[in-house]
Amino acid sequence: MGAIGAGLAVIGAGLGIGLIGKGATEGIARQPEAANKIQTAMIIAAALIEGVALFAAVIGLLQGA
């Protein structure tokens, strides 16, 4: 059961980061002069999602043990 939770956490993180990348790409395409600000915000958001996903995966695996 823990492996299912860990897998769902990883899938959710992948979807979240994909949506962030999509939004950043669209934002840069619409406003190229804001590329640096958009990229910085995208990297920070992706790092936060990765951190939460890591915690969720570890907790899910610990629950299964």
Please work out how many helical segments DSSP would assign.
2
The CATH homologous superfamily is termed: F1F0 ATP synthase subunit C
The helix content is over 70%
- What is the CATH architecture annotation? Up-down Bundle
How do the SSEs run, as a string of H and E? HH
Main CATH class: Mainly Alpha
Q: Major beta sheet, specifics? A: none
**What is the terminal-to-terminal distance?**
9 Å
Task: Name some characteristics of this structure.
mainly alpha, 65 residues, F1FO ATP Synthase, single chain
Task: Describe the overall structure.
This protein is an all-alpha fold and 65 residues long. It has one domain: F1FO ATP Synthase (Up-down Bundle). Helix content is 91%, strand content 0%. The chain contains two helices and no strands. It has helices at residues 2-30, 35-64. Helix 1 packs antiparallel against helix 2. It is elongated and about 50 Å long. The chain starts with a helix and ends with a helix.
How would you sum up this structure in a few lines?
This protein has helices spanning 2-30, 35-64. It is mainly alpha-helical and 65 residues long.
What is this structure's SSE topology?
Layout: H1 2-30, H2 35-64
Helix pairs in contact: 1-2
